[in-house]
Amino acid sequence: MPYYQRVRFDILTIFPEFFASPLAHGVLKRAIASNLVEVLTHDLRAFTHDRHRTVDDRPFGGGEGMVLKPGPIYDCFQTLDIAPKPARNTAKETVILLSAQGRSFTQTISHDLAACDRVVLLCGRYEGIDERINTLLCDRELSIGDYVLSGGELAAAVVLDAVVRLLPGVLGNPDSSRNESFSPEASQSSINTAALTKDGVPDSTHLSGGLLDYPHYTRPAEFLGLEVPEVLQNGDHLAIRKWRRQQALAKTWRNRPDLLARAALTREDRDFLATLDNLEKQNTTHNPSS
Ligand code: SAH
């Protein structure tokens, strides 16, 4: 374990029980049990003062739906001992609003959050929260994708999961999180330097270099007539790394060509991608309709 670090997450929500299941399984459960992360959920209804414990109200200006009132969120926030916005060191303490209008949540942001001591996740419901809470308390607004959920809880669970598995000591093998799809570390530097052997093949068996991960196989070697690729079974590690690199390139080329522009590519990678482009061109010339 390179250094000891413990992150505390505070989740503000009208459905705290929602998190019982995500926190009780797999990596998150183990990380909490090993004290590598602390996750506290806060019930916004506990900060209401009326008999009906009202957390929402009609929108000013009219229109559909309801809006989460600012009062309970603000009062709940005051109990968290987070610095007020102008004085806050956001590299260490950060307050995030989950929102369909936010910036896209990415693996790079996951790494930033994994370096924080405190992360506050605010979950909206209905049409969203009163915007003054965003202005007064939040450092950033994050969206987990271009679709609309009915609440921020699923999004908060996604962010929590993605960050916790990056914390030192959480995954048994640190390479598991370093070298997978989207890994910024791999894309930025290592592919061009130490990670390459003298034959120009990535040194790690699964260094993503900003690409999508390569396909994985386990036993049995044959399943319903489909064989595990020969190269993975013959123990030639250089050939395996090379095959995996090409598979990662091919998958990225097919599913997420936008990532290729930012990936760290060797000359060999570019040659391989050129052959994929050429093959496709040939196919479309022969079958103009496809
Ligand atoms: N009226 C809003 C949608 C509100 S959905 C709009 O059109 O943008 C209710 C809540 O779900 C939001 O306040 C937010 O907390 C959460 N939410 C919905 N989609 C999300 C997404 N893609 N990413 C993160 N949170 C989302």
Looking at this protein, list some descriptive labels.
290 residues; alpha/beta; 5-stranded parallel beta sheet; two-stranded antiparallel ribbon; 11 helices; elongated; binds S-adenosyl-L-homocysteine
How would you characterize this protein structure?
- By secondary structure, the chain is α/β, with parallel strands linked by helices.
- Helix content is 35%, strand content 15%.
- The protein has a 5-stranded parallel sheet, with helices on both faces. Strands 3-4 form a two-stranded antiparallel ribbon. A two-stranded antiparallel sheet has the order 8-9.
- The longest helix has 20 residues, at 267-286.
- The relative contact order is 0.11.
- The site of S-adenosyl-L-homocysteine (SAH) has 20 residues, from strand 5 and helix 6.
Give a concise summary:
The protein is α/β, with parallel strands linked by helices and 290 residues long.
- Return Rg in Å: 23 Å
SSE ordering:
EHHEEEHEHEHEHHHEEHHH
Distance between the termini: 51 Å
Can you list the strand order of the major beta sheet?
Answer: 2-1-6-5-7
Number of alpha- plus pi-helical segments: 11
Q: How many strands, what sense, and barrel or not for the largest sheet?
A: 5 strands, parallel
Helix and strand composition category: alpha/beta
Low-confidence stretches: 186-196, 202-207
Percent strand equals 15-25%
Number of strands: 9
| Shape category | elongated
Q: What hetero molecules are in the model?
A: S-adenosyl-L-homocysteine
> What level of helicity do the residues show?
25-40%
Mean pLDDT: 90
Topology (SSEs and partners):
Blueprint: E1 7-13, H1 20-23, H2 26-33, E2 37-43, E3 56-57, E4 67-68, H3 70-78, E5 93-104, H4 107-114, E6 118-123, H5 131-137, E7 140-143, H6 152-164, H7 175-178, H8 184-188, E8 222-223, E9 226-227, H9 237-255, H10 257-260, H11 267-286
Helix pairs in contact: 3-5, 4-6, 9-11
Bound molecules: S-adenosyl-L-homocysteine.
Residues 98-101, 123-125, 127-129, 143-145, 147-152, 155 line the site of S-adenosyl-L-homocysteine.
